[in-house]
């Protein structure tokens, strides 16, 4: 495991919660520039795997590498600053703040304090502010949030809030984006929008995407490859159509 073009690789990842084994020997390679799907029934370990990758629940066994560098045990905010951004299943925006200010909050991962940075702070802040404004405007354009930019975030529809969350994640300029069930609670039209924005953002910003989704149709529509989990174990992995049509996957879904 650990092929040369993998941006993220997990090898032999195991995670227990007390006596519950949530992940058993999970290994995967996500290639630079692809959209990789993480599929499986409820309770199969998808969120736990993402929490392992993003540092919230470091695995007790196994290795996780991002761009070749081990990130086991690295704290979540450090992992974010290394270039992995994530959205959560439930919208987690800052109420009382505008759409624009919520997106700007995403810059935090980027503005890490250091002795050197404070020495050059004013010079740096001025430079960064111009860059930051350009970057944020690019994202607002890309996700078509122009007309909502000054709205308080709690008054806009849920579909649009999801888009703001995506924008906030992108504002950190990640190289890898992790989406946890981005379509949850969306109607059909909103789902189609989100799919299109994910594809547009991926192209425009040269991203690699890991997406958790339990709707097989969404996975087959946008993913290059996929991993299917059941009871914390890998039951299929590979090109998306092969993975989701694997007999073990069909059995797991029908068997419940
Ligand atoms: P999925 O995201 O596929 O629905 P999860 O990763 O949330 O699955 O859960 C996998 C298993 O791990 C479940 O049995 C769940 O109860 C357990 N689990 C997840 N997080 C915790 C936690 N913080 N404490 C205890 N058990 C957990």
From TrEMBL:
One of its GO terms (molecular function) is ATP binding. InterPro entries: AAA+_ATPase, ABC_AA/LPS_Transport, ABC_transporter-like_ATP-bd, BCA_ABC_TP_C, P-loop_NTPase. Keywords: ATP-binding, Cell membrane, Membrane, Nucleotide-binding, Transport. CDD domains: ABC_Mj1267_LivG_branched. Pfam families: ABC_tran, BCA_ABC_TP_C. Residues 8-256 form the ABC transporter domain. PANTHER family: ABC TRANSPORTER ATP-BINDING PROTEIN, CONSERVED COMPONENT OF ABC TRANSPORTER FOR NATURAL AMINO ACIDS-RELATED. This is ABC transporter ATP-binding protein. It comes from Ottowia pentelensis.
